[in-house]
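Exercise 7. Predict the structure of Helitron helicase-like domain-containing protein from Lasius platythorax.
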Amino acid sequence: MVSQLGVPTLFLTLSSADLWWPCMYRHLGVSPGDHSEKELSKIMQKKLNENPRVADEYFAKRVDECMKILGKKLNIQDFWWRFEYQHRGSPHIHAVLWIDGAPDVRTFDSQSTEQLAIFRQYYDSLVSAINPNINEPPAEHHPSRLQASEINLMSHQQHAQLLNRVQRHTRCGTYCLCGRVGHQKCRFNFPKDLLSDSKLEKDDKGIWTFTPKRNDSLLNDHNTFVAVSWHANTDCKIIAPEYAIINYLSKYASKAEPQSSNYKQFFNNILSSSTAETPAKQVFSRLLIRIVGQRDISACEVMHFLNGEPLFHCSRLVSKIYIGSNDYVLIPSNDDDDFVPQDIFYFYKNRSAQLENMTLRQFACDYHIVRKRLIKCRKQRMLQIIPKVIIGVSDEQDETFYKQRVMLFKPWRDVDSLKSENTWKNTYISSGINLWELADESSDHDDDTAVVETPENEPYEWMQLAAAQPLQPISDTDIGYRNIDRENDWYLSFDKYPDILNQLDFIKINKDAFRTKEKYKSRVSTSISTNSKF
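Solution. The predicted structure, encoded as tokens:
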């Protein structure tokens, strides 16, 4: 999305206040008026532990509704967000937003001082670090407990009470302190310097950064409308450096599980962080902890997966194309079947004469296959090329890299005739394709954005490789085409169970029965909650 839509405008984090949101009280059958805030917190913690599905579903629906409102309020053109779960179980999301009409950070170096001042004012309207009243006394009840009818978006008192309760980084703990003992500092850089005016400038490394005006050294950067309407902890930051979005998404918002290490690697890592005076018992204790350690999975996350809900949401669909060093060929499912599955390459090679000059990249973004038919996309799709290769690693990878570029950016009907030279690299050079000056091929589409390809800056796709074949080199295989495979009767086990056809709908029938049961149970709970007094 970044390479095709450009750099997004905002980072946004929305956290859960499941202990205090009034809707959660109704869903869990808790009467907040009968308990003190301390007692209410304990009751809600117990209820949430017993009903993780309620907490996860409500948060997901709240995020959906919030994004619909923000889409209109902030004029959001595209979005991507992902669910994450803390060790204590509460969900939160990390989102990146593309706002229509926002400044393009890649053009800042060529902008005048007056234009940069206009950009800075625009960012001021999106991100704030101003506290209406730092000394505002705490509210009688937690600010997140306010009913929707009680919230006044124009009330400075409510705004200050909310910020002082959920948006201030008042304490530093082990989760945010980094560095050596005695020289530790907060990894979020709190407390921060006060500023009488915002800044949009280059830092010491020559990277463009935006720093909002600040009157509270402990206040999180936030969007005022989001903070007041969401009524829980939020975080909002401007994406200024172009590479920051790649680092953020690959290392933070979409972080994957750390790959396994062998015993020797574990031991060497521990030794490198130990001193000569470290007792051997301590070293082996740390080794044991590293070996048996595992990732915590919260109950909410388990419920999220069991409900079949996706971990991320995106405004665009993705088209995936495989272009490797060796082309694969689709074959019939058996010798008697003349039908060959038709992929995007088949439709591209047999496209109409009106699309003669259309490249494969544009074709894959603008069209998709539905029930063996080619359909025009209502909104341009994102294109993902597999495998993702980095130029300069090896001659084989270089050939794959140049082959992908030639096939994507030069119109063709036959791959063999496309390779006009002895290597794909020479074919690429002779074709005159310049990726860094390549004009947008889809400029006649309203949803398109100029494309700037920078392959050398793209992150490694080790996660896809690991998922496909963990810790193994990619190699060709003849499994499925050997004589033993062809001669085997693969339907023999099916014939042993004549009643299996009657069981094909077993899962569907039980799912429908469960949904019906939950539907009536929900109606009964809603009726009880409606008649309850709070």
